[in-house]
Amino acid sequence: MRLLSVRLIVSLIVGITLVSLGFSYYQVVAERRALRGDLERRAEVLGESLAGNVEKTLGTGSNQALQRLVQRFGNREHLIGVAIYDRQAQVVAMTPELGKVLTASPQTLTQAIHDDHSESAFAKFGSSRILIFALPLHHDDELSGGLVIVHDASYIQAQMLRVWRETFLRVLAQVFLIVFITLLIVRWSISGPIARAAQWMRAMRTGRISSSQKMPDLDMFRPLAREVATMAESLNLARNAAENEARLREAGESMWTADRLSVHIQTRLAGSRLFVVSNREPYIHQRNGRSLDVVVPPSGLVTALEPVLNACDGTWIAHGSGDADMEAVDAHDRLRVPPDDPRYTLRRVWLSKQEEEGYYYGFANEGLWPLCHIAHTRPIFRASDWQHYQEVNRKFTDAVLEEIEDTPSPVVLAQDYHFALLPRLIKEKRPDARVAIFWHIPWPNPEAFGICPWQRQLVDGLLGADLIGFHVQSHCNNFLQTVDRVVESRVDWEHFSVLRQDHRTMVRPFPISVDLTDDEAGEGQTNGFTYEERSSLMRSLGTEATFLGIGVDRVDYTKGILERFLAIERFLEKYPTYQGKFSFIQIGAPSRTHIKRYHDLLAEVDAEADRINWRFQSDRWKPIVFLKRQHSHNEIAPYYRAADLCMVTSLHDGMNLVAKEFLAARRDERGVLILSQFTGAARELRDALLVNPYDIDQSAEAIRVALEMDPEDKQLRVHRMRRTIKEHNIYRWAGNLITELCEVRLDVVEDANEKLRASATIA
């Protein structure tokens, strides 16, 4: 930094000096030109005023009168003298002082008489400069001689020296002031922030602080600051990963991390690439005034699949739903992501409003969603929605085929019920591709699925995949039973596979989870959420309570929010001592609200919360706080950490990650999870208080048990459930899913082997 300051100061001194000298030179030249012009004008005015008198006197032939005349004009400022010459340039009269200067007739006079026109010229006399002005004289319109006026021009040179001296002093003062100000600016705006940033990076490198501590302000170097922050985060992640691996080796454990997943996938793919297909994109571009904002939607899927795509330079194909998504892509609808550290490609697929309405809101969410969830909402199937569903699946298939065109043996992983037809469509064009689809929602029994008019097409489309994944084994069983009933095929119950049209499809459970690896070091420690902090949180919500419950859901009829509210009401009825002491925070993100069933449900949930509050609330307490908006993970985390219990009362759910997110947030190993027995998570989290959400009294009793549970029992339960999540985290889910897919023997390979064996037999 000292070298930078010296270079900057020297550069400033040289630059300022050169610029100042340039301007000063221009000023001196202009000043000299102005002074010379002024002197010439004064000589000309004097000459013209003197010429009339001289011409009259010269005509009389009186040399004495001419001498008196020139002596009378000889005492003017800067005037050396006046001389009168005849036609032959001989002196007729001259100021005595001028005799020392003009020893002969000047060339200027000769030129003026010859041209019959006034002339002026600057000449050097000793160490001084003079101005000689010559004017022709006439008598009776005939040339009779000349008039010479000589001025001392040395004052002009003195004036120039004065200008140069003032310029030097001004430059010196400017250099001093600018250097001083620059040093202050460098110190306050550059050296100081950079020094603080270096100190911050050194402290983080040595582990004295965490990357969560805010970086010092570097507004002047914003692009550099972003890169430094990214590098710091990468460094911290690398350190945490190394520490995790060291702890695991010490403990003899084998836990999945993002780094392990990346290395594992690179080995499994063996030079191939992964292509993920989903309706929701991992990054959304939204217009915010004149700027583009990048939004990361809250999704465990992004957490799981980004390390995989980063490791193999993969491609994520998704619906471009942001209002500025088109502005961010290239001519092929692609862009590199993540924005701060591009590692893989996002390919966006564009849907018209009609396609989105029919395929997503219509067939997928008014048809398949209620069909697969036992929540007693009638599915709606329209022929027009089915048509859009087929068209969108073909559109996504075309995009996938474009992306995998130059990739040998590509690996394609489709996500969820939006793309049931896609596996078959891809396999028909690229039989060498390994195709898997993960079905995130439940699969109902064959009788329930038979409601769908196009069940055969959906099942056939899914069986184009090499691997189909569900959350739990019961969903796999339901699917195989449906296959056995709907399409002509051979179901292998021993190996959980289906053979249809000479193509084998494996069906496996892969319970999805959350990331808990970065909390290893903090296990068993307090979460730092004090009673005062919780009280402050409650006051910000307009209530005061001793005990706090939390629920986090999309406002969906499968989530059992109304049943949850009824259980809270029943709890307060049965145990009135908790009135004024227990408040429940329901974070409800409005979802699909222009579908009538969802729009009506939001109003029902709001009205039910108001009814129960009206019945029980007091001045400073209310039993239910309903927060109706989308919350980020960071916004939800304080509620998880502050809550005494978390209620997940889904009527039917494939997995439900809220239960696992609550446990992941509880590093203090406190809190109680009340969990619906109809969720996939209930198969893993056996230490939760399992309830039937339709049994309102049972759920109410579970609330009491949770609030009155012994602290040691709470800690033991949470500890065991957190251990389960750590061992079966999101990275293990992705690793197992892709490993299973990569180990599938493709039909084209088997056919080639059979042909080879047949040829050998003939030979």
Describe the model:
By secondary structure, this protein is of the alpha/beta class. 51% of the residues lie in helices and 17% in strands. It has 23 helices and 23 strands. The longest helix has 59 residues, at 2-60. The model is unreliable at 749-760 (pLDDT under 50).
Task: Give a short summary of the structure.
This protein is 51% helix and 17% strand. It has 763 residues and is an alpha/beta fold. Helix 6 packs parallel to helix 22 and helix 10 packs across helix 11.
Key terms for this structure?
23 strands; single chain; 763 residues; alpha/beta; 10-stranded mixed beta sheet; 23 helices
- Unreliable stretches (pLDDT < 50, length at least 5) are 749-760
Mean pLDDT: 85
Largest sheet: 10 strands, mixed
Strand content: 15-25%
Helical stretch tally: 23
How many strands?
Answer: 23
State the separation between the terminal residues, measured CA to CA. 81 Å
| Radius of gyration computed on alpha carbons | 47 Å
Oligomer: single chain
Question: How are the elements arranged and paired?
Answer:
Layout: H1 2-60, H2 63-72, E1 79-86, E2 91-94, H3 107-115, E3 119-125, E4 128-139, E5 142-152, H4 154-205, H5 222-251, H6 258-269, E6 274-278, E7 284-288, E8 291-295, H7 300-312, E9 315-319, H8 325-328, E10 334-337, E11 344-349, H9 353-372, H10 383-403, E12 411-415, H11 422-429, E13 434-438, H12 446-449, H13 455-462, E14 467-470, H14 473-486, E15 490-492, E16 497-500, E17 503-509, H15 531-540, E18 547-554, H16 561-574, E19 582-589, H17 596-616, E20 624-627, H18 633-642, E21 645-648, H19 658-665, E22 672-676, E23 689-691, H20 696-708, H21 711-727, H22 730-742, H23 747-762
Parallel strand pairs: 6-9, 6-12, 9-11, 12-13, 13-14, 14-17, 18-19, 18-21, 19-20, 21-22, 22-23
Antiparallel strand pairs: 1-2, 1-5, 3-4, 4-5, 7-8, 10-11, 15-16, 16-17
Helix pairs in contact: 1-2, 1-4, 6-7, 6-22, 7-22, 9-10, 10-11, 16-17, 16-20
